[in-house]
Amino acid sequence: MYFEYRFILVSGTGSLMNRKDSDFVGSLRRVVGDAFVLEDRERVSDYLKERRGRFTSDTMAVVLPGSTDEVSQLIKLCRERRVPMVPQGGNTGVCGGAVSTERSIIVNLQRMNRIRKVDRLGYTLEAEAGCILSNLQMAAQDKGLYLPLSLGAEGSCQIGGNLSTNAGGVNVLRYGNARDLVLGVEVVLPSGEVWNGLNALRKNNTGYDLKNVFIGAEGTLGIITAAVLKLFPQPVHRSTVLIAVTSIDSAVELFSRTRKETSDFASSFELMSRICVEAAFRNIPGCRDFFDQPYPWYVLMELGDSTSDGISKQLNERFLEHAFEDGLIEDAVLASSDKQASDMWRLREAIVEAQLYEGKSIKNDVSVPLGAIKPFIERTVAALEARVPGARSFVYGHIGDGNIHFNLSQPRDMDGDEFFSRWHEMTDIVHEITDELDGSFSAEHGIGLLKTREMLRYKSAVELGLLRSFKAALDPDNIMNPGKVIPPAE
Ligand code: FAD
Ligand code: S2G
Ligand code: ZN
After folding, report:
1. What distance in angstroms lies between residue 385's CA and the mean position of ligand 1's atoms?
2. pLDDT in tens, 147-174
3. Which domains, and CATH codes, for the chain?
4. Each residue of 371-410: b (16+ CB within 10 Å) or e?
């Protein structure tokens, strides 16, 4: 009979930790410094919050590296000890991509927040991954330039997380997703090697487009530590309009005119259904109806330009005139001031928060071809409300990109947990119809933990095989954000 002496230490996070683990955490401290390894339950709690309450997160420690070299050393230690790492930015992701387990460490890039360079001539910005998106927008603006990536979480999400999720947001229509805004990245690989891919050239045609392997990989292939972003002329003139329409047909027809009639000056074309704006009026202070009667659908459209005489307003007025003449529009309010324009945007962005007051919600972020928007919405609303009478379909989003946020709020007379218990049943209805219409079950939020099931259902064996080959080649020990994006083999 032998006695195994297991030194059981209770770590700061409250999880039982054996001697080996505590030595390991000690080695992390030697890399980043004592102050930047958080174990105390109190101090790690924010890093463990999962936005939609769908997943619980735990961790051995939260580690805050201050440099690329420290990230590299951390990865080498984790690789040696086979301790999984979860890269984390602002923790605003909505798919559980930054959720950790007690046997992992969270590596948050918040300390790596230096803006290295803004090149006015080259229209580029080089920054570290931990920079908050809104800070980068300001840095560009200070130089009279424009970083168009913009989303509701921009005050807390980090550019590393934006690239890792290939974030979309409200300006994709004119400027593209995060992926389209990147010229180069610096990545620390699961081997601990640093790939300096900080290219600032518009043309550099030398081999595979490696940056795009890591953009959208959601932290499963390495940790993005810096990036070179494309900048654009600052749109000094904006013309924002809130349009009331009676049908999805009119909204889609309006969009199809936008590109030609405004010569692609429209940067945003957002759809909102009545139930969305009513929830905002009800729950969010400062949100008000811009019209004197209710309408079933609203479009928020914004144009911008950097010309001296500002042609956006003229383009918008002419566009609206034609649309009125053709009976596409019931009413419209053209923002007469920046304040009014921001009030319109506040109404749009408030929908996410407003829905929190409407009970539990089952959220879907899908995209369909523009011509399928109407059948998608009509079929899905009908199918869901037939399946769960009283389920309230909040339909809104970036329809210029074919991207619909189809978020279901629990029926007023149903228990929230019962509603959540039907999560897969409801999302399967949404995803089946999306798939039939050649759409995507994840338009901009990514996969994380939330949609690995859909990856199995809707991705071909060839595509899953390719994803697994990339993962095996780059992260053979599966220490980089394991379990995310790629479904476990069946
Ligand atoms: P986190 O949530 O911290 O992490 C997200 C993923 O990226 C995880 O898998 C993580 O492991 C990985 N990761 C983070 N940093 C790194 C890094 N440096 N290297 C490698 N991997 C990393 N998303 C949209 O696309 N469009 C929207 O319009 C939009 N609107 C939103 C509005 C609100 C109010 C909220 C709360 C969220 C919204 N989101 C939207 C979702 C979210 O903001 C984005 O997914 C965002 O890009 C996440 O960035 P983050 O820094 O918070 O990343
Ligand atoms: C949006 C926000 C994320 C969510 O409002 O554009 O991407 O909660 C969404 O649906
Ligand atoms: Zn969105």
Report:
1. 30
2. 999 999 999 999 999 999 999 999 999 9
3. 19-108 (3.30.43.10), 115-233 (3.30.465.10), 237-355 (3.30.70.2190), 359-436 (3.30.70.2740)
4. ebbeebbebbbeebeeebeebbbbbbbbbbbbbbbbbbbb
